[in-house]
Amino acid sequence: MDVVTQAGTGTGARQPIRLASPSDADAVAALIAEAFHPLAVSAWLVADPARRSHVLSEVFRIHVEHAVASGWVWIEGDADGVAVWQPGGLAPPPGYVRRLAMAAGEHTSRFQTLDAAFDRRHPRPAHQHLAFLAVAPALQGRGLGSALLTWHHRTLDRGETPAYLEASSVASRRLFLRHGYRDHGPAIDLPDGPRIWPLWREPGREPGRKP
Which CATH number fits domain 17-201: 1.20.1250.20, 3.30.428.10, 3.40.630.30, 1.20.1530.20? Predict the structure, then answer.
């Protein structure tokens, strides 16, 4: 699934950041669904706004649980913001086809189309994948998203590890570009849907550091 945040780029946020545990999966998935609800890609996936939050939360929980077990899920504050990272090329969650159908119901084909579009463009070189970056709507614009990015980028830079993501809005793309990401090939245009931008970050490209 794509990556989005509408948080600002300020550096004043001083919320504690911790790794999620399996017991956090429901809250993390719900927060991502809440933050993603107004996005064009979310409306493309689930047109009915009354159903959207529930379906998104159920689908996102599959990926969050997988990342808790196999990657890194960072929580800022009292679940004010979250960043879900996975090793590049991570296999789908066990039983993903069945679980997706149960979670998405009549919307399954849209999620499958999105997955296929992402899979076709996913880079092969070793990297880490930022699957989700989300901030609670009431707290957006305070720098929480930037703080989460900078937190994990430090680890990536120490290990000289690139990062990859898919930005699903113009605003989120601008944020990621400010954090050292660059376009990774042409944008992805979903069928009768919105545009998504694959982005790649070489280590050591955090703001204020020489590329």
Answer: 3.40.630.30
